[in-house]
Specification:
This protein is α/β, with parallel strands linked by helices. The protein has a single domain, classed as Rhodanese-like domain (Oxidized Rhodanese, domain 1, 3-Layer(aba) Sandwich). 27% of the residues lie in helices and 14% in strands. The strands form two sheets. The protein has a five-stranded parallel sheet. Strands 3-7 form a two-stranded antiparallel sheet. Strand 5, helix 4 and strand 6 form a beta-alpha-beta unit. The longest helix has 12 residues. It is globular and about 40 Å long.
Length: 146
């Protein structure tokens, strides 16, 4: 996937990402696993007239980064009419995998990759549960069960 040294990706608050997804030709890319999409849910972009692109950054259960991630996502983006100048928002559970994915796509020449800060579920709360403190779900943004 190439070196990502020196690659800088902005963190964008979930509310800002949601607003820009509704106002621009931007794309939301969920890089979690199939199990997370099915059991935790997916962002719902129907109000914005869009659908989220889903592509795993790492496979479960071995957590290996997919070596074909950049190629697979590039093909999906091309099929969706996106260019290397389209603003791309990357989301995962809490912002770690999505940051790595955004950095990989930036290194591949996509100029406007953004990381959705706190991701879909955000950090753990005091009861060690996600989805209540920060992130897409906690912000009350639309989502659907997979």
């Amino acid at each position: 996937m190439g070196s990502r040294e020196g690659v800088s990706v902005d963190n964008v608050p979930v509310q800002d990402a949601w607003a820009r997804l509704g106002e621009t030709d931007s794309v939301l890319i969920d890089v979690r696993t199939r199990a997370e999409w099915a059991f935790v849910g997916l962002p719902d972009l129907a109000q914005a007239g869009k659908r989220v692109l889903t592509v795993e950054w790492q496979s479960f259960p071995d957590n290996r980064v997919d070596p074909s991630f950049v190629d697979r996502l590039s093909q999906m983006l091309d099929g969706a009419g996106a260019t290397k100048d389209t603003e791309l928002f990357f989301i995962c559970r809490s912002g770690g995998r999505s940051r790595m994915a955004a950095e990989a796509m930036t290194a591949a020449g996509f100029a406007r990759c953004r990381n959705v800060a706190e991701g879909f579920e955000g950090p753990l709360d005091e009861d060690r549960h996600r989805g209540k403190v920060a992130g897409w779900k906690a912000a009350g943004l639309p989502w659907v069960q997979g």
